[in-house]
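User: structure tokens for this one?
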Amino acid sequence: MSNLNLQHWRLEVDAEGIAWATLDKAGEAANSLSRAVMGELAQVLDQLDVYPPKGLIVRSGKAAGFVAGADIQEFSQLDTAEKGRALVARGWDLFNRLATVRYPTLALVRGHCLGGGLELALACRYLLAVDEPGTKMGLPEVMLGIFPGWGGMLRLPQRVGPAAALDMMLTGKTIDARRAKRMGLADDALPPRVMERAARMMVLSDAPRRPLPLMQKLLNGPLKSVVANGARKQVAKRARPQHYPAPYAIIDIWAKHNGNALAAPALVDGIVRSPTARNLVRVFFLQERLKSFGKESAFKAQRVHVVGAGTMGGDIAAWCALRGLTVTLQDQGLERIAPALKRARENFSRRIKDKLQLRAIMDRLIPDPDGAGAAHADVVIEAIFENVEAKHALLRKLDAVMKPGAVLATNTSSLKLEDLRSVLQRPERLVGIHFFNPVAMMPLVEVVAADGADPGMVLAACAFVRQIDKLPLPVKSEPGFLVNAVLAPYMLEAMVAVDEGISPETVDEAMLAFGMPMGPVELADTVGLDIAVAAGRQLAGGAAAPRCLLERVEKGQLGKKTGQGFYAWNAGKAQKGGAGTPPDGLAARLVKPLIDRVEQLVTTGVVADAELADAGVIFGTGFAPFTGGPLNYRRTEK
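Assistant:
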């Protein structure tokens, strides 16, 4: 094997005649399948054609995981149809070759195994998953506006059945090792200490894989149209084809071309070079940029203290406990803390099925009515109601007992930090850590710095946000920061349209058709119309509150929380009438004040640049990701 000159792979043959191909991409923390990596894998297979082993085990040499997927940088450089088809052919042909070698093959999957990485593993006869928290498998290409073109659309349905496979491919969701074993994706899920021995035994057994049950074979063959029609209906509920063509292409390529994208060249060209794919790849890189904030800080929290057990404070505390931190939750008496604990248990039990694991998480969420935890916490988050005097009184008490190096944060959504920090011995230590509701669902957290803030504290706050698996967005201290500041004029314009006689349903339909996840009127109902009035006074530039909004607030119709707002609410869902066809130009009219405000906030430096502004509005409001963000949308629509 010594005649191979490999940069990214190591090829060794052990005493039992098993070849071990270890991918350790040079100069990178994680493996990705670049042109060079794929070329070297072809060389490895050439060598093994000449010297066939007893078996081949493919594994990673990285601590970070198996393979993160294809090289996204290479994908972003596809500027012709020919290059797009060549990229698909590269992986399709190579993995088909791997799937048909004469000797048994096994993928030893530890850590993330995503996209092209899972397609590589699927091309092996066996898949052995290492059962530890970091092991996640999935085909998330749809989230980049593309499809798994290197054999995933062929082999995943063959292995787990078409319904489960399409669910993974159309949502981009990942599964852990145990779930992979249960559904038949992995042949076994074992702890790290026995993984290499088990891999040897499995590959030497040369046993046939567990066959797909007969009904699943029929659904993957003669009855494909039944599954495909059902999948199209499900996709249509959450994605319009003009916005997100990739999921529809996945269904068609599987159903009509047996997962071979090269048999549908027009589809390949239309997807790979589509504006949606280009913009979603842009969003991927924006997300990576957000993830980079706080990386240079050594700060790592173990204990968090949250003051305020309302919906926001309670959910922040619960999320931190779920992410492994010890959390003390303070409020005026146990009776105020109990509902937050009950809500946390209900939410956790839907997500965590292991009772011991659930108990361990709840044990980390500690009621603390006296606030004793503040003195021991690495991060203290104030999440009480929006009143300057009340926050002053609380911040004085916290300042007196906190550790010197601990992060002191406020979750205020509308008050300036300069007005809150004046009571502190070290005003520069206060930062904003502003979560969005619902905490468990919203990925973005604004990290707010007032003038003269301690840079080390801001950095530590970003590191903490990453530690709990959220995306930190640094912003300056201005009312509304970025996200709430851009939503206010957008929601105001929507209600002005209602005042003009356009129905709430029609207003919402215009923005759903634009690509928003929720219409602005339903969003106002969800936030609370009283909150919309209060925020509007501060954030809408002095504009008068719309008549339709004031009338409902005066009647106590505050939206979802009272069961009636612009819509009646039943079981947490808005009861809407028919929307009709929105007037031409309504969506453009509604979105204009939002985009104008984003531009203004970039100009004034509240957010550092246009890319970060686009990232913040996408991940903080759900602004149609296929547009690449509001400023990218305005630039490309001109």
